[in-house]
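Researcher: We plan to redesign the surface later, but first we want a full-length starting point. Tokens attached.
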């Protein structure tokens, strides 16, 4: 295993500077945020473009990978997390076009995994969204296969605000759908596993790893705290809004002993990438770094 971080919180810091700090702090891997270059408003923790997939040549891609290797940093994956099943056709096309560019970039860099979302139309049922996924994803998956890259869908429901209500923006969050994904595309699509999303859904963490561990290509280390006062006020039918609180590892309700016991038991030996979404460690690069260092110290005893 290698311990690393997702670069997304360093939106205004060049990749080289992020790499210098990460290496000096003892991290061993980076998941590189690869959203499109844009000056428009972005979702929180999205929009960071540390490599512009639309304009980076094959030779430049190889140079970036080599520079990171000189810092003793591997690249766990390239990350772009849009909504490929967005109800607006123009939006859907734009994000799929960029995702395909990220896949090509990964191939040029020698990175085997691109992390993304399956997507979802919040106004549709799970089954209706699945029918859309069956139409959209085969061509994208074939593009990834042709470029020697695997796709890893994160198990995040993407329901944090009322614009994502009621169904969320990513259907790949439950065992029910993951069995369908793996039956349809299991040779080419795996999971970017984030245990925090199991907590508020009340999905058994150990059982989930036992069933889906062999298909985990990448792991996000993020914690989540249930605000029980918020849950009392809003009830479980609020789908987590007002009571699911992202935290740095060690500060929430994820049982990291259970997580790592399960990962080692099923033979996972890939990257453990800290994903920072904790509002208590925001506001400046120094605060963001403080959060990452806290998470590093919590997780380091498990990552060998």
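Model: Full-length starting sequence:
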């Amino acid at each position: 295993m290698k311990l690393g971080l997702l670069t997304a919180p360093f939106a205004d810091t060049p990749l080289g500077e992020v790499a210098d700090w990460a290496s000096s702090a003892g991290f061993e891997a980076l998941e590189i945020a690869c959203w499109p270059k844009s000056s428009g408003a972005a979702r929180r923790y999205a929009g960071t473009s540390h490599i512009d997939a639309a304009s980076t040549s094959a030779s430049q891609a190889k140079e970036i990978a080599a520079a990171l290797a000189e810092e003793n940093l591997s690249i766990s994956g390239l990350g772009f997390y849009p909504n490929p099943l967005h109800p607006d056709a123009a939006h859907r096309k734009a994000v799929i076009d960029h995702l395909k560019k990220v896949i090509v970039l990964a191939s040029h860099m020698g990175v085997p995994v691109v992390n993304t979302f399956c997507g979802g139309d919040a106004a549709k049922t799970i089954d209706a969204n699945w029918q859309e996924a069956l139409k959209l994803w085969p061509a994208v998956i074939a593009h990834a296969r042709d470029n020697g890259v695997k796709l890893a869908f994160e198990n995040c429901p993407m329901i944090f605000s009322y614009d994502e209500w009621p169904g969320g923006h990513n259907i790949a969050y439950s065992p029910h759908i993951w069995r369908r994904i793996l039956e349809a595309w299991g040779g080419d699509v795996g999971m970017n596993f984030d245990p925090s999303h199991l907590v508020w859904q009340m999905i058994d963490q150990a059982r989930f790893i036992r069933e889906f561990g062999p298909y985990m290509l990448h792991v996000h280390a993020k914690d989540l705290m249930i605000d029980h006062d918020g849950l009392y006020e809003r009830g479980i039918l609020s789908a987590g809004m007002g009571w699911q609180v992202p935290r740095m590892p060690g500060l929430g309700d994820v049982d990291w002993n259970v997580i790592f016991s399960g990962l080692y038991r099923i033979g996972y030996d890939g990257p453990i990438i800290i994903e920072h979404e904790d509002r208590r460690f925001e506001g400046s690069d120094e605060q963001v770094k403080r959060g990452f260092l806290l998470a590093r110290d919590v997780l380091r005893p498990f990552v060998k």
